[in-house]
């Protein structure tokens, strides 16, 4: 069978970047959807809070009653889970202060040692290690005074771990220019946000291969909780998060300053 002509093997051209009008339409749409989602979530939580508390109280009493038997029946943690936990704690400590330009070569090597080149990031099988590193540097560059603290590591399987971390970030003028430029049209949001210290809860689901390299990484970033500490009105929170993707991925609209090596 003869090979297809070269034109048949070419990938379709990439779509052109969005125009300014298209970007504004997207921001308005995200703002509307965020407002609707936040209002529905607040209503649902308010209506079900008392029932949830009562159900949790019953469940807690039952669990406490059987706690000793359950604990004594648990097998010892597999060696691979213990090794994975030890390795991840090392890396969380190593990157606690974010992306340090003075150690960029060491940190780059460390990340490439930890992650597989074809790591699946946020369900995207074509993302790879460069996408993870891009998001990591973007977060550390656009926010100030980055600090990450590990809350807990929960083994799910001998090759799968769930981590809860808290990331502290400082909002600067560049943060608003790069990530949330639309808030400058609001009469009070910029003054309330500038200089604020965000405490962002983050949940990570981490899968490793047999060589203890991360093969899959899923991240859930709770920006709503972080911003609600400084912006009480849910409509204003939705206004701030209008340009943040549902996955938590940061959309940069201004060019970050070059790193100083």
What does this structure look like?
The protein has two domains: 19-73; 77-241, Roll (Nuclear Transport Factor 2, Chain: A). With 261 residues, it is of the alpha+beta class. The chain is globular, with a radius of gyration of 22 Å. The chain has helices spanning 6-9, 20-73, 79-94, 104-114, 128-142, 173-179, 189-193, 223-228, 234-240; strands spanning 115-121, 144-157, 160-170, 197-208, 214-221. It contains nine helices and five strands. It comes from Saprolegnia parasitica (strain CBS 223.65). Residues 1-24 are annotated as: Disordered. This is BZIP domain-containing protein.
Provide the descriptors you would attach to this structure in a database record.
alpha+beta, BZIP domain-containing protein, 5 strands, disordered C terminus, about 20% strand, Nuclear Transport Factor 2, Chain: A, five-stranded mixed sheet, about 260 residues
Helix and strand topology:
Elements: H1 6-9, H2 20-73, H3 79-94, H4 104-114, E1 115-121, H5 128-142, E2 144-157, E3 160-170, H6 173-179, H7 189-193, E4 197-208, E5 214-221, H8 223-228, H9 234-240
Parallel strand pairs: 1-5
Antiparallel strand pairs: 2-3, 3-4, 4-5
Helix pairs in contact: 2-9
The biggest beta sheet reads:
5 strands, mixed
In CATH, the topology of the largest domain is named Nuclear Transport Factor 2, Chain: A
The average pLDDT is 78
How many DSSP helices?
9
Protein name: BZIP domain-containing protein
Region (Disordered): 1-24
Organism: Saprolegnia parasitica (strain CBS 223.65)
